[in-house]
Amino acid sequence: MAIVLLTGMSGTGKSTVLAELQARGYNTVDTDYGPWTLPDGTWDEHRMKELLAHNHELIISGTVENQGNFYDHFDHVILLSAPLAILMQRVKTRTNNNYGKTREQQSQIAADKQSIEPILRRGATAELDACQPVAEIANSIEVLLARLH
Q1: How far from the centroid of its chain's Cα atoms is residue 17's Cα?
Q2: Residues 6+ apart with CB under 8 A from 37
Q3: pTM higher than 0.90
């Protein structure tokens, strides 16, 4: 049993990988949707604490400012990373999320790649190349989970 955070910049494919893992039978939560995030973009700490306290096997995705407050609850913090050009291509063409469509949002993604991704990397227990096919990324996550059992 394990609790995992899947994190990374916009466009790395967190939601897509999470959907693949859910299709494989894993319990998942995408914190980009539902009641997990407050209007200021941070996780609702009370709700997240409840979620983490009542689940022993769970894969969560998200990237928020206060996620580090929860790192001690995760068996793995997995960073998905990809070159900026790939991120930009993905956010411009994705249909499941409108974030990244405007020039301002794209500028923010580029700035975050420079300033936020290194912070995420320092907190990660593993980093996966988000340019790989989704099935391969999910396979790699399954290998990490198997090592915990």
Answers
A1: 9
A2: 31, 43, 44, 62, 64
A3: yes
